[in-house]
Every structure is written in structure tokens, then in C-alpha cells.
Design a protein that fits this description.
By secondary structure, this protein is mainly α. It has one domain. Helix 6 crosses helix 7.
Amino acid sequence: MSFDVLLNGILGLMLTSAVLIAVPGPSVMFFIGQVMAAGRAHAVRGVLGNALGMALVAMVLSFGLGRLITHSDGVLVVLRLIGALVLLMIGLKYLRVDKSRGVANGQTVEHQAGSFLSGAIVGVTNPKALIMFGVLVPSFLAKGSESPVAVLMLYSLIPIALGVVIDLTWVMAAHMISRSAFLKGATIQWINRGGGLLIVMMAILLFWEAWNTMTA
């Protein structure tokens, strides 16, 4: 696989991952809830635990999907189509988000376990992690990759690293800005809708890539 192909895959994955991660989901709501209920330090430990949980999901899925891709190039087309469909569903969901939902659903903090362990559990059980490493990351793998498992593991580091940076940004913002100003339902609603529109655009691009692969 050439350097240009690898670079294009990395850049595309960075853009898609950043959009999907930045839109408030279960983990972001959990971290904001930790900031408000237990303080910034607890939330930071939760972010690190979440990264570990995501890494575990990435390892399991990379080894399994890597073997499939080695034996069938058609798997890439299927994964890209599934990835586009999933992105489209997520984007439409965010576009239809209900203002009344706010962030209340994410404000429960598990006090019986440590913040790090709680974050790891959130990472493992977060639907975004399964979508990210099971569908989106493999969809950026180039056709005919000699070592798909290694490339999948390399690509998986991108959303994990971006996740840490973006989640910490949310934590710091929640800590610095007053709750009444930052956590208004309308604010989260418009953030969700803007992110939803971007995700829908990503879905269209992924559909286009899958079509080009099938007709190549």
C-alpha cells in the first residue's frame, strides 16, 4: 500500500472521526455529568478510562475483521455501505434531537466504582465505539492491503487519540463555563443538529466511495 493511499485514509478517518466524536453522545454526557457531580479530576480519569475501553473494542474488532478482509475484497464494499448507512441514521437522529432531552440522561455518576473504571465501562459499552471500530475504521482501509490487521490497529489509534483530546475539551469547557450558560437544552440541540448535518454529508461521501469501488 502506497504512502499516498495510507495518508488519504488517515485524513479521511480523522475528519469523520472528529465529527462523530465531537457531537455529544453517551460518553460526552457522562463526562459532563462527572464534572458537575464530582469535579474535573474525576471526569479526566473517566476520559482516560474511556480511551482504554475503546482500545479494547478496537483490538477485538481489528483482529476479527482483518482476517475477513484478507480473504475477500468484497468485505470492504459491504463495510463501506454499512458504514454509510449507519452514519446516515446517526446524522438523521441528531437532526431530529428533542430539545427537552438536554443532558440529564448523562448526569448519573457511578460512585461505587472508580472514575477510571466507570469511564472504561462507558467506552466498552458505547455504541459509537462499535460503530467506529467495527464499521467506519475498516471502511477507510485501502483495497488489497497486505496486512489489514496492522493497518486497522494503526487506524484505530486515530479515533482513540482524537477522542481523548475532544473529550478533555468538553470536560474543560464544562468546568470553566457556568452550568446555566453552557448546558442549556437549546445549545446542545443546535450542536447536535450541526453535527448531524456533517455526519449525513460523511455518509453521502462514503456511499460514493463504495460505489466507485464496486464499479472500478
